[in-house]
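Example 3.
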Amino acid sequence: MSRGLLTGALLAATMSFTAATAQVPGADQVQAVTLANGLQVIVWPDHDIPNIALFNWVHAGSRNEVPGITGLAHFFEHMMFNGTTTRPQGEFDRVLEANGARNNAFTTNDVTVYQDWLPRAALAPVFEVEADRLRNLAFEPKVIESERGVVHSERRLRVDDSYIGRLQEQVQATAFLAHPYQIPTIGWPSDIESWRIQDLKTFFATYYAPNNCTLVLVGDVEPKSAIALARQYFESIPAHAPPEPVHTQEPRQEGERRVNIEADAQTPLLQFAYHALSGSDPRQAALELLTRILTDGDASRLHRVLVEEKKLAISADSYVDRGFDPGLAWFLLTLPAGADTKQVEAVFDSEIERVRDGGVTAPELARARSQALADFWRGLATIDGKAQALGQYAVLEGGYQRLFEAPRAYESVTADDIRKLAADLLRPGNRTVGVLTAATAAAGQGVSR
Amino acid sequence: MKTLVTALLFLCSICAFAAGNGVKVPPYERVPLGNGAVVLLMERHDVPLIAFSAVLRGGAVSDPAGGSGVASLLAGLLQKGAGARDAVQFAETVASVGGQIETSVSTESISINGSFLARDQQLMVELVADLLQRPRLEQAQFDTLRARQIEFIRAAKESDLGALAPIYGESELFAGHPYGRSVDGSEASLAAIKHADLQRYYQEQVGADRLILAVAGDFKAAQLKQRISRAFSGWRKAGTALPPLPKAERVASRRVLLVDAPESVQAYFWAGNVAVAKSDPRRPSLDVTNTLFGGRFTSMLNTELRIRTGLSYSASSRFDRLLQPGHWEMSSFTQTDTTIQALDLMLATLDQLHATGLDPKMVESGKSYVQGQFPLALETSEQWAAQLATLEFYGLDRRYIDDYSQQLGTVTAADSKKVIDEVFPPSTALAIVVIGNAGAIRDGLRKYGPITEMKLADPTFAPVRTE
C-alpha cells in the first residue's frame, strides 16, 4: 500500500463497546481510532488520580531479528531515549521529568513498549517529544558506542551473573529450531559488540512507523481531546511500507531436547519449556487455569508436592508466553543445594502425567477461576495495569475488546478443555528440559564462565 | 466486644482529590480497640476488592540478639496453619476465593498484606484473625521453612547479587546496632534458630497492642467495623515491651567491606551513611535533592555512570527512613575491570553535589517530578491501606500526605543546599561495600580506606568481627 492512498483516509471509525463489556466499570468509555497514517490510538478514561499512563506499543521485538543483529530491538529500547535530529541526547528525559513525568520501556520477543506516567497537564509536551523521537531519531556514533556498554552491563546483570538467566537463555535457544523466538531478547554478546549504524537505520525505518504502533492512553483524560491531540502531534508522521510478516513457523517437535549446564553452583536448577499457544489462541484461558492449578500459590499441585511435601524444590513457578506466534509454557524449579536433579525431574514428570491422564478436579478448576478473576481485577486497579492489559490484548491477543471478555472466558473453560490441552501440550516430546548442576571434578560439556 | 470500641470519625473537609495539585487522603475512620489494636477503615468502591495491611510493631529490631531472622520466620509461618485449618487447608481456602495474603518482615515491623474479592469480606476477617491470634507454629512447618529460607539466600548468591549489596551494606554501616540486622537472617543465624525461639518470640513480641490493621476497599465501614471488633477485641497484648532503640552513630571516616565473589563478571558497589528519621521535617527538600542526585533517570549519578560513560546499566541513591535515623545509600555496578573507575566517578559525583549544590532550574524540575509522580503511589486500595498503616505506625497525620505537594512547591535551591550540608554525607565519610572478584579489584580498593574482607560463600552478611 502506498503512502498516498493512506493520507487523509480515516481507516476505522471510533468504536465503543457496551453490551459485552458491561461488567468492567468504565469499559464502555474506551474509544479506539486509527489515524490516517495507520497509528492506532486507544483511550480509556479513569479519573481516580490526576495522572495518565501513555504506552506506545511498537510491534517489533526479538522475533523480528536475524543472526548478526540479535538484540537490536532491545537496543532500540535504549536508543529511543538518546536524542533526535532536533533534540540532543538527554532532552527527552529532561522534558518529561521537568513536566512531572517518568518513563521506562521494555522489550519482549514480540513488542517494544515505551511507557510514560504523567500528570494530566503534561500530555501535550509529552506527545510532542514522543512524536519527535518516532519521526526524527538520531544515530550519533559516540552515543551508540556508549549505549553498547550499557546494554552489555544489562546483559551481565540479567544473564551472565545469573544462573537462572543463563539456563533460560540456553533452553529458549534450544526449544526453537526455525522460529526467531530462539533469539534471546537481550542479544548474543558478539552481536551486541558488532551492530553497525546501518543495521540500526534499517531496523528503525522498517519497524518504527506509525502504522506499526499502538498508542494506549489510560487515565485522567477525555477520549475526544486525547484523540485530537494525537492527531495534532502524530498524524503528519508518514506511514512506511508495512514490515515483511514473519512467516516462519516452528516445525512440530520430534522428541524431547535437553540442555545441561555444569556450573560452580550450589543451587541446582530445572526448567521445562513446552511449545504452547499464540496470544490470540482461544485456548489461552484454559492454559492459564492449567498453569495456575499446577503452580499458583501454596495449594497448587507442583508447589505442594515438590516444595511442601517432598521438599525437593525451594520454589516451583510457571510462565506462559502470549505473543504473535505460538510460544512456550515454562516451568521453573529452584532446588536446594545438593539435590538430585534426576529424582526431582521424575517427581515433576509424574505430576505432569497425572494432570495429562486424569485432568483436574472441579474444586481445582473453581479455585483457579477465582484466582484468575481476582487477579484480573487487581490488574485493572491502576492506570498502569489498565494500559498494560489494554495494549497486550489490542496488539497480541486479538483485540482490546477481548480484555473485557476475559472473565467470561475463564467461566467457560471446562475440566475437559484443560485435560485435552494438557494431553496436547504437556508431552515429553514437546518440551526442552534445562538442567543446571554443580560441576563435578571432570570438565563439563556445558557453558562455563 | 462492642463496648470496648471507641470510634473516631475523621471527616475530610476538602473531600477526595484536589485538582492537579496532588492527592488528598479520602475520608477514613480510626477505631482504637480497648486492647491497644488500632483499626483504620477507608471505603473505596471502584473495583470489587478489599485490601488490608496488618502491621505489627517489632520486626527485625525485636529479634533476639544473635538471632537475626526469628521475626522473618514467624512472618512466614503465620499462614502455615492457623485456627481450625492446617497449612494445606489454609492455602486452599485463600486460593479458592482468589484471595492473596503475603507476609513479610522489615527492620521495624512484620506486615501481612493482601486482598480479597469484596464478597469474601467475612472470610478475610476470619483468616487474618486466625493467622495473627491462632497460628499453629508447628515444628514440622518451622523446619521446612527455615531450610527453604537458607536455600533462598544461597540461590540469591548465584542469581541476584545486586539485591544482596544493600544487605551487606546495612550490616556494615549499622554494625552492632539493631538496624544492621539482616531482616531475613543469614545462613548461619537461621541455622541456629530453634522452634522454641520462635514460640517465645510470638508470646513476647506479638499481640494486640502491637497491631495496626488498615483496610481499604469495597465495603460498608459500619459492618466491617463490627466484624473486626468482634474478631480482635479479645486478643491479648504482647508479653514484653518493645526493645529500646538507640540512635545509630554516623560513620566519620571511610572504610571498605570487600565481599569476594570470584565467579562474578561484574562488581556491585554500595556506599552509605546514617541519615534521617521518617519524621524529619526536612522531607520535601531531602526528597527533591535525592531525586536530582540519584532518584530518577537524568539524576546526577545515572547521568555520569550510565548516560555519559556507559559504565553501568543503572546508578541510584535512596533514603531508608525509620523511627530513628535510618540511612542514605548510593549504589551501582559495572564490569570487573572498570570497578575503580566507576567507584571513583560515584564519589566524585557526590563531591560535586557538595561543591556546587543544585541550580534553581534543576530544583524546579525536581519539584515537578516528585509532585507529578506522587499520586501514582496513592491509587489503589492496597496502596491506601499501606499508607494508612504507615501514618499510624510513625505517628504522622493526614497532613503528611495532604500537604506534601504544597510543601514541595516551596523548596528552594538554598533549602536544598542546606540539606546537602546537613544530611548528605561527604565522600570521605562512608561505609563502602563491594561484591566482586577480590583478586582483580582488591589492590585498587585500598585507596578508599581500610579493607575488611569476607567471602560471598560465608554464611553471614557481616565479617566475623561484627556478628
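Chain A has two domains: 3-234, 257-438. Chain A touches chain B through 76 residues (CB under 8 Å).
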